[in-house]
């Protein structure tokens, strides 16, 4: 993971921004990137996250279940190479209950080098970038700022 940004209400059970955040991965080389490989990596990431946090919070082992990520292709948005929309079903270790996160995955070229960015805005409610800007304004602001920072940093690093 290259970077992660949280909304103000990310960890507040009472907030409409609960579990709303964005992160970016940077992948070097020419990996095969598709919905199955992204889902597999998200499952591994969230299974580890749940395991670490369940132990700290004394969550019974029988409450913990394997993360299940489902991604479906969308028409590529803007400068995306590929765009996917999907869900991540997992244990909410803060609320101690099952939950489903909604996400949009943006795969972008990092420029002249064989590198790629994969960016993920996530929320407990379905995200539709063109339609939900007002409702999820802070999440989009976080996502846009994060993506811009990461692209600028890589551009400066590899002299794109």
UniProtKB/TrEMBL annotation:
Any idea what this protein is called?
Answer: Uncharacterized protein
